[in-house]
Amino acid sequence: MTIPDWLAPFLTLDISLWEKVLRTVVVYLGITVLVRVAGKRLLAQMNSLDLVVVLLLSNVVQNSIIGPDNSVLGGLIGAVVLIAFNGFLDRVSVRSPFWRLLLVGRGTDLIVDGRLDDAALTRLGITRGELDLALRHQGADAVGEVEKAALEPEGDIVVSLKQGERTVSRNDLDHAVAELKELILAGQRPAS
Questions:
Q1: 149 or 40, higher pLDDT
Q2: Distance between CA 192 and CA 98 in Å, rounded?
């Protein structure tokens, strides 16, 4: 079956399928290494400069993936390979602690028992203002209220408040009221 002339530019690959797959995987791995080297900061608190880098990065590597091929089919193949390879690496990293550490990394403690690690903030490029904002979003008003805060590999700052600093939930209040009612009722019963 021959392809009509008007459809040929959309479906004819200018490079082989295997070259397309290999180019996509190599560029994916290269960008993954760059993001790991750039650190969790790029994912955590993206400022306007970081956004410009991310936007330009996709344009810079585009030709590395597609090569001289500008066909629709070539672009779709590249997209499918990116999504499939990413899914494969996600599954590998979930099943293997070694691969998770290698591909994703580990969290970095920023605050431990109310003490701020200024060296970690500096190394990650996080300002005190950015940290304070993340703390406030998670219910802490001051560093001293925090049991632990860590920048996770996915870019989130996760905060655990000290026991006395945690907000009270509806269930906590209901439980306390029930205990008080029991104490009051026990005090009103005649002694046997």
A1: 149
A2: 65
The DSSP call for residue 40 is: T
- pTM assigned to the model: 0.62
116 shares a domain with 70: no
Instruction: Tell me the C-alpha distance between 48 and 59, whole Å.
Output: 17
Residue 73 near residue 13, CB atoms below 8 Å = yes
Q: Is residue 2 part of a domain?
A: no
What CATH code is carried by the domain that includes residue 160? 3.30.240.20
Give the residue-averaged pLDDT of 93-111: 89
The torsion region of residue 30 among left (phi > 0), alpha (psi -120 to 50) and beta comes to alpha
Nearest-angstrom CA–CA distance, 50 and 48 = 5
CB 126 within 8 A of CB 44: yes
Same domain, 95 and 132: no
Q: How far apart, in whole angstroms, are the C-alpha atoms of residue 14 and residue 68?
A: 7
**Listed residue (27, 143, 49, 90) closest to 41, CA to CA:** 49
Continuous H helices in 45-169: 48-66, 72-95, 97-103, 118-124, 128-137
Split at pLDDT 50, 70, 90, the class of 125 is confident
Q: Rounded to an integer, what distance in angstroms lies between the CA atom of residue 113 and that of residue 40?
A: 22
Give the pLDDT score at 117. 93
Q: 131-148: per-residue pLDDT in tens?
A: 998 899 888 888 998 999
